[in-house]
Every structure is written in C-alpha cells, then in structure tokens.
Design brief:
It is built from three helices and no strands. With about 90 residues, the chain is mainly α. It is globular, with a radius of gyration of 15 Å. The longest helix has 16 residues, at about 60-75. About 50% of the residues lie in helices and about 0% in strands.
Length: about 90
C-alpha cells in the first residue's frame, strides 16, 4: 500500500498520460477510484462480472489473480484480503 494513496493515484495517472501521449485532462471523466471496503467490493463485483463491461470475460479474473499475487509478493495485501499472515 502506498504511504500517500492520493499521490500514488495521481502519479499513476500522470504516467498513463505520458506513456500514451494523451493530455491528462482528456480522461478525467473516465477515471474513478475506490478505497477500503468500497475498493474490495468493486474488485469482487468486477471479478464476478457484475460491474464488468464485458460479461463473462475470462481474462478479468486472471488479471485479478495476477494482481493479487503481485501485491501479496510485495507484501502490500492488507488484512482483509490476506490469505495468510506471515
């Protein structure tokens, strides 16, 4: 988890804008974020295709699994999602 989530989110958006050569303000209306329980709820709803733009897309669950594995390896998974405590 980032020490300053708001700053980390803004840096991510800046990176995306620079990487894709798109002005940051062009995708303001398409970006949203969740924190805490709302983030976990959204993640599970997307994984279950309830909040997915492509219902039944098998890559979505695979991407969630990969993201969880990477976060777990980086020891940034919080107590709510941790499958084991080390």
């Amino acid at each position: 988890m980032a020490a300053d989530p708001a700053s980390a989110a803004e840096e991510t958006l800046k990176f995306l804008a620079t990487d894709r050569s798109v002005a940051r303000n062009l995708f303001n209306d398409a970006v949203y974020s969740f924190a805490g329980r709302d983030a976990a709820r959204h993640m599970f709803r997307v994984g279950a295709s309830l909040d997915s733009m492509v219902v039944g897309e098998p890559q979505i669950l695979g991407q969630l699994k990969l993201a969880y594995a990477q976060a777990s390896e980086a020891r940034s998974v919080g107590l709510v999602l941790a499958s084991r405590i080390s």
